[in-house]
Amino acid sequence: MSLDRIYLNNDWYFSKEGEKKREKVRLPHTNKVLPFNYFSEQEYQFVSYYEKKINLPEELSGKCLFLTFEGAAHRAEVYVNGKLVTTHECGYTAFSADISKAVNLGEDNEIKVVLDSRESLNVPPFGHVIDYLTYGGLYREAYIDVKNETYIEDVFVKTVDNTMPWRNIEADITAGGKYNMNKLVGLQIFEEGNEEPIIETDFYNMEGNTFKIPLSSSKLQDWNLDNPVMYKAKVILKDNEDVLDTEEVYFGVRMAQFRRDGFYLNGRKIKIRGLNRHQAYPYVGYAMPRSVQEHDAKVLKEELGLNAVRTSHYPQSKYFLDACDRMGLLVFTEAPGWQHIGDAAWKQQHLTNVADMVKQYRNHPSIVLWGVRVNESQDDNELYKEANRIAHELDDSRQTSGVRFIQMSNLLEDVYAFNDFSHTGNNPGLTKKFKVTPKVWKPYLVSEFNGHMFPTKSFDCEEHRLSHALRHANVLNDMYAEDNGISGCFGWCMADYNTHKDFGSGDKICYHGVLDMFRNHKLAAAVYESQQDEHPVLEISSSMDIGEHPAGCLGDVYIFTNADYVNMYKNGDFVRKFEPDTEKYGNLPHPPIKVDDLIGCLLVEKEGISEKSSEKIKKAVKGYMNEGFAGVFTPENIAGLGSAMVAEKLTVQKGFDLFYKYVGNWGSDVTVYTFEAVKDGKVVKTVTKAPVNDIELRVTVDHTDLVEDTTYDVATVNVALVSKDGNVLTFSNDPIVFNASGSIELIGPEIVPLRGGYTGTFVKTKGKKGKGKLTITHERLAPIVIDFGVTK
User: Fold this and answer.
1) What whole-number distance in Å separates Cα of residue 39 and Cα of residue 781?
2) How many Å apart are CA 398 and CA 22, to the nearest integer?
3) Residue 595 gets which letter from DSSP?
């Protein structure tokens, strides 16, 4: 047992008020395991009890003991040996209690948490409807910190200036506990992973309980998106030569500033391209450990190629933010809430939440903006003036904002953040800044777009999924325009999520994500992924099956890629080269490519038809692709087809034969389309679209080497049913059977359906070392076995 921090994540006993049955559980814990969809949000709304015994050694005599819970949803009363030691009324911030006088050293001590997870509580975000589930449970970790009688209470390291070769930082230090007039304080800076400090200060007399240590050094590097350099600051508190306490925090050196014309990181202008994230998962809601939090950050940064995330609509796990720090992902975080503003007590809790959020998260360099308003609430000048003041007082190195869905709102913060839901598919992607706020000289940010305007399921028809993707592309394209005063935008949202009956599709799911709830990709995900240059992207919007479309009209086909161009082949024959649509999407780093020609050079090279006649025929074919025969038999196309048939001496039957061969594809043994993405003259990725005869399961696991550390570990498992060419079989809803054995167990049911060709699960360690197996079965395929190893 470490006597600096004692983790309390194991051996809790959980029970529901009014029930005698107690269940042994581990933290993070959800108070109710829920179905995937179609359930009542009342199922998790009850009072529960968490009880644990711990024997604290007598050698802790004279020490200060602080009991901390990182997250308890939503009102917690904490008792130690029957004595109430603290009450906390926010489910999204951590809280601590000094239990030094409540414990009996050398004996068993009982910790009991009475947890109220009902949404009738008079605290944010409650009071009216909420477009997300709030769940219940001790869903983050718990521990006891052991301190001397005089200790370091808080350390905040901030960047003062990094415009010169010397980087200027400041460490704000707060001491707590018994007053000691002989305190000395010093600072060491370490490169992450190194044991020798690169910078050491002298020790200074700390006469009061607060002290600032300014530091200038040329040894410090900037934290940025491509090279997010992290440092460890170690503060040492001494009484003469006796060390009273040490505290370590991680920080980055960076200057982030929203200006009138956009966002600047270390003096370089950057367009923010991000998504909103809920911290929710199937079955267990908020209750996921470090590995899963980190996995979400990797999905955002490495899979989707984003540079930012908004933690909607509440502060999220420190592990998620740690990962954002180390991956170079900008964060806009905000106090809990959703539209509603309550009475005076409710408002006071909001102010407390703002203060707690800033104090607990201000060392994260990834955080560049504080949200001090309740999301989408009406103006309340008195409340938000005070919230803004609190944030600036606690952190003068960051700007503030507050998310609105109203135009011409009173701006008390530094940045006007607006949820712009004006785009409907065929109009401008974003509202002009001057139409949203008269203070056009102020920084401006789009905090949400799309979302409920066009819910999209993985199993929707191709036209719907493509429209969803293009709506995201349209907004991003408008955002990227020069000199529009928009710092960036956050799409709504990263992943589908469970919600209340007032929202969603009637099954308690909001299908607003570019990913599904297991973090499987929808087509719209490729819009974001294709804007990065770290890995090649080639996503075709269609299966190229005309029967999927009304009247057999294939309609628009788009390619989302970061390649220079794409070559298309039909049955091995080159059709043509397609290039990015810079006319419509010229602001994007990598515009989509529209495929509006399925014939290309084939009529000329395979049928001997002249270029002139070929172009006339292809124009009529384009009409068919979009409108069926009505698009073919326009006066212009009739004239063109007639002249082509005369010039080429084509009979009517020959014309129909060519149509079936090159457009309808009827009667052919097989039609195979091949797409080659070409970058810098090299083929970097190939996609083939062909009739599906053989199927296989594609399984991806984020990690198989699991570690029992401070608590259990969880691996994310993604499953897709694909063709032999790797194309997801969107309309498959076959059952998938999961079976876990050995040192792992499942989170969720053993049998789940494919949804849109995708599904997933999570495997969890059981507190013991060893090996585990996950067997995944589809009724038409041989089982797939994934081996796991668990260490402690």
Assistant:
1) 32
2) 46
3) E
Q: Which long-range contacts (CB under 8 A, 24 or more apart) does 660-663 make?
A: 662/598, 662/599, 662/602, 662/603, 662/621, 663/598, 663/599, 663/621, 663/624, 663/625
Q: What is the SS3 assignment for 69-118?
A: ECCCECEEEEEECCEEEEEECCCCCCEEEECCCCCCCCCEEEEEEEEECC
Q: Are 118 and 47 in contact (CB under 8 A)?
A: yes
pTM above 0.90, yes or no: yes
Of the candidates 402, 395, 399, 328, the residue with the CA atom closest to the CA atom of residue 365 = 328
CA distance 690 to 336: 48
Which tens digit of pLDDT belongs to each residue from 491-545? 999 999 999 988 888 999 999 999 999 999 999 999 999 999 999 999 999 999 8
The per-residue pLDDT of the chain, averaged, comes to: 94
CB contact at 8 A, 84 and 78:
yes
Q: Which helix (H) or strand (E) holds 523?
A: helix 523-529
Active site (catalytic) residues: 376, 448
107-148 pLDDT, tens per residue?
999 999 999 999 999 999 999 999 999 999 999 999 999 999
Contacts of 386-393 with CB under 8 Å at 24 or more apart are 386/351, 387/335, 387/350, 387/351, 387/354, 388/412, 388/413, 390/351, 390/354, 390/355, 390/358, 391/354, 391/358
Query: pLDDT value at position 2?
Result: 46
Q: What is the C-alpha to C-alpha distance for residues 754 and 756, in angstroms, rounded to an integer?
A: 6
Using alpha carbons, select from 420, 421, 422, 417 the residue that is nearest to residue 443: 417
What's the DSSP call for residue 147? E
To the nearest whole percent, how much of the chain has pLDDT over 90?
83
Q: How confident is the model at residue 662 (pLDDT cuts 50, 70, 90)?
A: confident
Lowest mean pLDDT among 81-90, 338-347, 462-471, 499-508: 499-508
Query: Which residue's entry shows tokens 């083939």?
Result: 688
Tell me how far the alpha carbon of residue 543 is from its chain's centroid. 28
Place of tokens 């009216």: 128
Could you tell me which residues come within 8 angstroms of residue 95 by beta carbon, excluding any fewer than 6 positions away?
68, 69, 72, 76, 86, 88, 356
Q: Residue 417 to residues 85, 258, 269, 333, 481: CA-CA distances in angstroms?
A: 39, 11, 18, 12, 18
How far apart are the C-alpha atoms of 449 and 477, rounded to whole Å? 13
CA distance 781 to 792: 35
Question: Rounded distance, CA 422 to CA 462, Å?
Answer: 23
Q: Please report, to the nearest 10 degrees, the dihedral formed by the alpha carbons of residues 278, 281, 285, 289 taken in order.
A: -90
Cα–Cα distance measured from residue 450 to residue 352, given in angstroms and rounded to the nearest whole number: 32
pLDDT of residue 614: 80
Helix (H) / strand (E) element for 351: namely helix 344-361
> H helices within 602-748, ranges in order?
602-607, 611-627, 629-632, 635-648, 652-659
CA 90, 96, 102, 106 torsion: positive or negative?
Answer: positive
Which residues on adjacent β-strands are paired with residue 509? 498
Crossing angle of helices 344-361 and 381-394, in 10° steps, is: 20
The structure tokens listed for 299 are: 């999905």
Residue 636 DSSP symbol: H
The long-range contacts involving 622-628, CB below 8 angstroms and separated by at least 24 positions, are 622/596, 622/597, 624/553, 624/663, 625/553, 625/554, 625/555, 625/556, 625/596, 625/598, 625/663, 626/553, 626/555, 626/556, 627/553, 628/550, 628/551, 628/552, 628/553
Q: Return the higher-pLDDT residue of 177 and 717.
A: 717
Burial of 536 (0-12, 13-18, 19+ CB in 10 A): middle
Q: What pLDDT is attached to residue 641?
A: 75
For residues 193 and 592, what is the distance between their CA atoms, to the nearest angstrom?
42
State what percent of residues in the chain have pLDDT above 70: 98
